[in-house]
Automatic annotation (TrEMBL):
GO terms for molecular function: hydrolase activity, acting on carbon-nitrogen (but not peptide) bonds, in linear amides. It comes from Gossypium anomalum. The lineage of its organism: Eukaryota, Viridiplantae, Streptophyta, Embryophyta, Tracheophyta. This is Amidase domain-containing protein. Residues 21-182 form the Amidase domain. Pfam families: Amidase. Belongs to the amidase family.
Length: 432
């Protein structure tokens, strides 16, 4: 089915009414869209590829995450375009078209939850559901100038969501308003309302921000001023995350010995990304190799080689990936303790232009996955927060909290948001 004209966000429009008409429900009056990776009863889940849609039957059950927000009082208005088989963070789809980035129409919207991000960014819905395995909510949120939340791994059921790589798959969501982001999160995570808690420490890893092409005045500078205003500067701590991870995650040495020590990256985080990619490819292969080899689907030229590489990849050293996960989660839990926050660039720079040659994006992608793999491998929750525009392109920053601290992080975003936007507005005036 051809995309609609609404910024190219939707692959299919329909209306699912909330399961109750009560006005007292937390999401009453809100509209949402769902990525075409979620099952909806009576509709074929397309997974971003026409051959997948052609060879699969309509779902007979609706994914629990979708049911939760319907039961919370929200109205679903359709399914959104995604990258094929969730295997890209660009957001371009040769079959259904590329959704238009509302902040920068000549730039990619980010993926794989591209349509879900665009639907929110363009004001077509109040919030949307996506999935995040390697960065598929965080990246498009950053590129489209909106909020995007990746929850703690396994905190929300992925039943009825086509698996990409189960060790990393999460159900995430987008919103423009931090209060809506919080309300949606409480419904999806089945959380009670709790009072906000002041963070105990906020760690800023200067080495990670050195990977970004965005000036520090537009990222850490904005956040530091906001923290100082609200909580005082004593909770701010500076850390070299690469050195900390290298020391505390000894299993990474296996991956660092394989030529990942690039001058343009942080060696330990590049190794972390390699570990994640190895396990992700292994699980993707287990999930989908039979269908791919049997159907030989028509895949976009920018994805076909990478997907087939995954299908043909050897199954080696998978056990060491589990050791990396265990060690990283323990190391970051020890660093952050209770109510600690780790600050990161969501992505290492501006959204790439449409149809940029993949070879020229190699360094950008490598840096991006080094940053994205921190939450991915640890299973920690992460939120991407917009910081306005720099040189007419969207800027963001991310906050991470330890596994299970989703309510704390959602409350913190809501408490910080207005101050951050105010400081970002000042910075925008003087740095653009």
């Amino acid at each position: 089915m051809a995309k609609t004209s609404e910024s190219g966000a939707f692959v299919e429009k329909f209306v699912l009414q909330p399961t109750s008409s009560s006005q007292q429900l937390p999401l009453s009056g809100l509209t949402f869209a769902v990525k075409d990776i979620f099952d909806v009863d009576g509709y074929v889940t397309g997974f971003g590829n026409p051959d997948w849609k052609r060879t699969h039957s309509a779902a007979t059950l609706t994914a629990p995450a979708v049911l939760d927000v319907l039961e919370g009082g929200a109205t679903c208005v359709g399914k959104t375009i995604m990258d094929e088989m969730a295997y890209c963070i660009n957001g371009e789809n040769v079959h259904y078209g590329t959704p238009t980035n509302p902040c920068a129409p000549d730039r990619v919207p980010g993926g794989s939850s591209s349509g879900s991000a665009v639907a929110v960014g363009a004001g077509l819905v109040d919030f949307s559901l996506g999935s995040d395995t390697g960065g598929s909510v965080r990246v498009p949120a950053s590129y489209c100038g909106i909020l995007g939340f990746r929850p703690s791994h396994d905190a929300i059921s992925t039943s009825g969501v086509i698996p990409m790589a189960q060790s990393f798959d999460t159900v995430g969501w987008f919103a423009r308003d931090p209060a809506v982001l919080n309300r949606v999160g409480r419904v999806l995570l089945h959380l009670p309302n709790v009072n906000p808690v002041t963070p105990s420490q906020i760690f800023i890893p200067e080495d990670c921000f050195s990977l970004s092409s965005i000036p520090s005045a537009r990222t850490t500078g904005v956040l530091i001023k906001s923290i100082e205003k609200l909580f005082g500067g004593s909770i701010l701590k500076h850390v070299n995350l690469g050195d900390y991870v290298k020391e505390k995650v000894p299993s990474l040495h296996h991956f660092m010995a394989k030529g990942n020590d690039h001058a343009y990256n942080i060696p330990s985080l590049a190794a972390l990304s390699s570990s994640m990619r190895l396990l992700q490819r292994y699980e993707f292969k287990k999930n989908h190799a039979e269908w791919i080899t049997t159907v030989n689907p028509n895949l976009g030229p920018r994805l076909s080689e990478r997907i087939w590489d995954a299908v043909r990849s050897p199954e080696e050293n998978i056990g060491i990936c589990s050791s990396v996960q265990t060690e990283l989660r323990a190391a970051l839990t020890d660093l952050l303790k209770d109510e600690g926050i780790l600050v990161l660039p969501t992505v290492p720079g501006d959204p790439p232009k449409l149809q940029t040659d993949l070879a020229s994006l190699e360094v950008f992608r490598a840096r991006a996955f080094s940053l994205l793999s921190i939450a991915g491998v640890s299973g920690f929750c992460q939120v991407s927060i917009p910081l306005g525009m720099h040189n007419n392109l969207p800027v963001s920053i991310s906050l991470l909290a330890k596994h299970g601290s989703d309510a704390f992080l959602l409350n913190l975003v809501e408490a910080l948001y207005d101050t951050i936007q105010e400081e970002a507005g000042f910075a925008e005036k003087f740095t653009n």
